[in-house]
Automatic annotation (TrEMBL):
SMART domains: Catalase (SM01060). It catalyses: 2 H2O2 = O2 + 2 H2O. Residues 1-23 have a biased composition (Polar residues). GO terms for molecular function: catalase activity. It comes from Nitratireductor aquimarinus. Keywords: Heme, Hydrogen peroxide, Iron, Metal-binding, Oxidoreductase, Peroxidase. It holds the Pfam family Catalase. This is catalase. Its cofactor is heme. Residues 1-24 are annotated as: Disordered. The keyword Methyltransferase does not apply. Decomposes hydrogen peroxide into water and oxygen; serves to protect cells from the toxic effects of hydrogen peroxide.
Length: 501
């Protein structure tokens, strides 16, 4: 006993008995004065924080970004200079499932990275896909509603998903990736990550370049078929956690080759596609990927809650030399994440150790929930406003980014006009071999079970526009899976909410 520390209350007083509550008599009721009992129950009631509204189920680890290439002519970012080594945190996730969802489910995977640079935290909050389902943030809450549970049945609704997708042709590119082999990776190590959005880099001459970030798995791509995944989920719901934690624990550190595509600023006016449209990639032939380094994950968190659940990633976190682009989706995300963190974690969420920058922090934010940094972050108690005469921190014009050139009238521009939603999905479809195409068709047919015929027909018309083989392949798979005949209404049975109507 002597070598064990004495248990205390959270106020530091020694606890005499952690087995028996205080009762009136041996069989009697519990006394309110048993504060330690009340404290334990009250703490238990507060152990959960709100789960992320999307990407609730996740797996994460610490690591390092090592830069070996030289892109110093494009950016002053210290973390991107040749030889730089920057500690970082990664969190991978599925999008739609709740915190307890099974890991091996078909879904897009989040690929969120926080780099603790000398100039503050730089976050790249991407996915394992280079594109997204929508290109205007006004549609993001609607899209997410179709992925989450139906308000009445409390079940996922394939009808809602395909209704939305078939009415939003910009989703075709991402839907094709989601339903292809890469829509169900075996574990986080076996998938690529993409910054997805166009960001910008700027250099010491004040020049801006558009940039896309890619993280290519060095473990090789590995995927499950639907049937394999069902078997895995039948055995373990935590296959990703087991794989990621296990590989790092064994010292087999997963790595990703880091690449950038760079576009000169003026090219954005010239490309056939809008380079700020999140439903499009930049073809490699036009903008070849440049190798710049390697990202390695090499340390498991000691505590999942404090280091992964509490992690706050935000596309708003940029550092000198790296900036945003006009991408409408990115612009909305710059607002949304910090807002989510204030709600989910609290006002001063950046004081949680995993979110703290590993460089000096000086700001004039003050009191409020979670102010654990002691007074103010200016270094002088009299310097609590700015400007001041007490040596408080001041701005640094040396890190001012070059002006962002924009033009045009403020208006609501119809993003479905003049945008080719079929060309890039076609380029992807043409990359697939016969086996991949057949699995794409059968995955789509499986996901369409119970969807009304008019919605299926609307979606098939989009597949036809990508490639006649695409539409026809899905038609054949629908017949095999559900006995569906073209234009017949509906497929097998009805989705729960339709059955209820
Ligand atoms: P490329 O042939 O030069 O590049 C193909 C890219 O597609 C590679 O990054 C490759 O990733 C990826 N890829 C290969 N097979 C698959 C697959 N089965 N599922 C998903 N991605 C795959 O062609 P383009 O640059 O002209 O692009 C053609 C299409 O490839 C695009 O329309 C897009 O759908 C897809 N793609 C393009 C990317 C880009 O940034 N240009 C990025 C990712 C996908 P890897 O090297 O890891 O195999
Ligand atoms: C998580 C909003 C689009 C990737 C989140 C969260 C919100 C959100 C509120 C929860 C954050 C938290 O509680 O910590 C949005 C909005 C979008 C959008 C409003 C569109 C306008 C995207 C896109 C990507 C993406 C396009 C990828 C390219 C992620 C990832 C996470 C996440 C990876 C989980 C981060 C983590 O691991 O903590 N999103 N999102 N999101 N989002 Fe988005």
């Amino acid at each position: 006993m002597a070598d064990k520390p004495t248990m205390t209350t959270s106020a530091g007083a020694p606890v005499s008995d952690n087995q028996n509550s205080v009762t009136a008599g041996e069989r009697g009721p519990v006394l309110l004065q048993d504060y330690q009992l009340i404290e334990k129950l009250a703490h238990q009631n507060r152990e959960r924080i709100p789960e992320r509204v999307v990407h609730a189920k996740g797996w994460g680890a610490h690591g390092v970004l090592k830069i070996t290439g030289d892109i110093s002519k494009y950016t002053i970012a210290k973390a991107l200079q040749p030889g730089a080594e920057t500690p970082m945190l990664a969190r991978f996730s599925t999008v739609a499932g709740e915190a307890g969802a099974a890991d091996a489910e078909r879904d897009v995977r989040g690929f969120a990275l926080k780099f603790y640079t000398e100039d503050g935290n730089w976050d790249l909050v991407g996915n394992n896909t280079p594109v997204f389902f929508v290109r205007d943030a006004l549609k993001f809450p609607d899209f997410i509603h179709t992925q989450k549970r139906h308000p009445r049945t409390n079940l996922r609704s394939p009808t809602a998903m395909w209704d939305f997708w078939s009415l939003s042709p910009e989703s075709l590119h991402q839907v094709t990736i989601l339903m292809s082999d890469r829509g169900l990776p075996v574990a986080p190590m076996y998938m690529n990550g993409y910054g997805s959005h166009t960001y910008s880099l700027w250099n010491d001459k004040g020049e801006r370049f558009w940039v896309k970030f890619h993280f290519k798995t060095m473990q090789g791509h590995k995927h499950y078929t639907n049937a394999e995944a069902e078997e895995v989920v039948g055995k373990t719901r935590e296959s990703y956690q087991e794989a990621l934690f296990g590989t790092i624990e064994r010292g087999e550190f997963p790595k990703w080759k880091v690449q950038v595509q760079i576009m000169p600023e003026a090219d954005a006016e010239k490309t056939e596609y809008n380079p700020f449209d999140l439903t499009k990639v930049w073809p490699h032939a036009d903008y070849p990927p440049i190798d710049i380094g390697v990202m390695e994950l090499n340390r498991n968190p000691d505590n999942y809650f404090t280091e992964i659940e509490n992690a706050a990633f935000s596309p708003s976190n940029i550092v000198p030399g790296i900036s945003y682009s006009p991408d409408k989706m990115l612009q909305a995300r710059i607002f949304s994440y910090a807002d989510a963190h204030r709600y989910r974690l609290g006002t001063h969420y950046e004081t949680i150790p995993v979110n703290q920058p590993k460089c000096p922090v000086h700001h004039y934010h003050r009191d409020g929930e979670m102010n654990t940094f002691g007074g103010i972050k200016t270094g002088n108690p009299d310097a609590f406003y700015e400007p001041n005469s007490f040596g408080g921190p001041v701005e640094s014009p040396s890190v001012k980014e070059p002006p962002l050139r924009i033009s045009g009238d403020a208006d609501r521009y119809n993003h479905r006009i003049g945008n080719d939603d079929y060309g890039q999905p076609r380029a992807l479809f043409n990359l697939f071999d016969e086996g991949e195409k057949n699995r794409l068709f059968s995955n789509i047919a499986a996901a369409m079970g119970g969807v009304p015929g008019e919605i299926i027909e609307r979606q098939l018309a989009h597949f036809d526009k990508v490639h006649p083989d695409y539409g026809n392949g899905v038609r054949k798979a629908l017949k095999e899976a559900h006995g569906y005949e073209a234009n017949a209404v509906p497929v097998t049975g009805k989705t729960p909410q339709h059955a209820a109507e």
